[in-house]
Amino acid sequence: MEKKIFKEAKKEFNLISSNFRFNYKVNFLLGEIALEQNEFEIALLHFNSIEKLSEDLYDFKKSTVINNIGLCYLHIGKFDDAERYLFKGVELQEIEKDSLMLIRSYMNIANLYYTQYKDIQAIPYFEKAYGLSKKVKSFDLKRMTAKNMAVVEENRKNFPLALTYRKEYEAWKDSLNDQNKVWAIADLEKKFAIKQKQKEVNVLAAENKAKIAERNGFLISSVLLFVLLGTGVYFYRQKIRSNKIILAQKNELDELNATKDKLFSIVSHDLRSSVNALKVSNSKLLDNLESKNYTELDVLLHKNSSIASGAYNLLDNLLNWALLQTQQGYFYRESLHLTSIVQHVEYNYKPLMLNKNIDFKSNVSASDYVFADLDSLKIIIRNFLDNAIKFSKENGTISIYSRSASEDFCYLVIEDTGLGMNEATRKELLKETILLSKKQNDDIIGTGLGMQLCKSLIRKNEGKLDIESEENVGTRVIIALPKFKNHG
């Protein structure tokens, strides 16, 4: 079924006895196959057979079944039944807080009304789907909702706004949604940059040779000492200038190569270390599983989770860095409620803090609104909070709070009582072009890529960054973001 070989899938499913304990799952999967093949009447029979089953007795999402029934009724033209089931599905999905399914359900309801030429009822659901898509990471859903809004505005004859949605649709369509492509893109970017710089060096070298030949021609043809001297001085200066340009281009190319090589070296080393650590840990897991040593199993599982989380964050930073470097990421600055964004990010890190018994305190002013891009602000806060956890000791403290805002900026502070750093390291971290590998021990993955990414995103949001730190005392990261002044 997963390989879309539906004929063989149906044949295998139909061999299962109707008395099988999990036969409701068979009906659900056969219904999904029929839905995929546009056999809506058949799909309806399968879904109806499990609609009345209780979720307490059977492990399936009732909201999905209800939504699929509504979808079948929509396609066979029974609009009243479709409306009833689609709305019932939405109610269940809102309880389950299933954002991805909610977006699809809102679009299904909108299409239901659109099919019946009830545009006034359809448009609010297209807008709901579009608004909710801003909060999920699915490029496909972002693309679909933007396209729907473009069609809505075209039908309204609001062509400038329709064009905006069309551009957003194209941006999501072209976005990188496969992290495996990051390596290939980075390698192509490196080769392209080298090729371009080499072309520039060759052009400058050719120009330099031509000017030398021109100077020699003047020297041979000149009969006056003054002309000879003047021409010699002129071409000498030109040569020095050309050599300086060539040297500057060469240094820039060397720096680019060194940065790329160092990045690949560090990332590949850290990923290899993480995978190797997982291999060793998994081997221990199997040994402890055989001996039923559940205490050690719990410790190893938490360690595996920490290793996987670190590797995932490294890949996520690498993807965002590649998108930033190639200018393919979606960037839109708007009014953002700072404390809501912080709460959303900190929620995902509370289990990690509990594992290290870290005391967490949050006191961000509810009145602070900043003018920034939502996704990049989350990346910034996530990276600094992740660093605070990584470099904090057991039973440490992490605090996130607001400093007094100025007329132009809101100040967000992330403070920890961890390892800290010396003054030289602090100054290096704040340099514009630095890319460090900061490791205190083998359990901490650090390429400096997250810091480089955060500095670039803060700069792109027209903000500022400062760091206060003392070794073995802790670190305080201060992020200054432009204040949204027109918020009522």
From TrEMBL:
It comes from the Bacteria. TPR repeats lie at residues 63-96. Its EC number is 2.7.13.3. The chain crosses the membrane at residues 218-236. Keywords: ATP-binding, Kinase, Membrane, Nucleotide-binding, Phosphoprotein, TPR repeat, Transferase, Transmembrane, Transmembrane helix, Two-component regulatory system. It catalyses: ATP + protein L-histidine = ADP + protein N-phospho-L-histidine. SUPFAM superfamilies: ATPase domain of HSP90 chaperone/DNA topoisomerase II/histidine kinase (SSF55874), Homodimeric domain of signal transducing histidine kinase (SSF47384), TPR-like (SSF48452). GO terms for molecular function: ATP binding. InterPro entries: BphY/WalK/GraS-like, HATPase_C_sf, HATPase_dom, His_kinase_dom, HisK_dim/P_sf, Sig_transdc_His_kin-like_C, TPR-like_helical_dom_sf, TPR_rpt. Residues 266-485 form the Histidine kinase domain. This is histidine kinase.
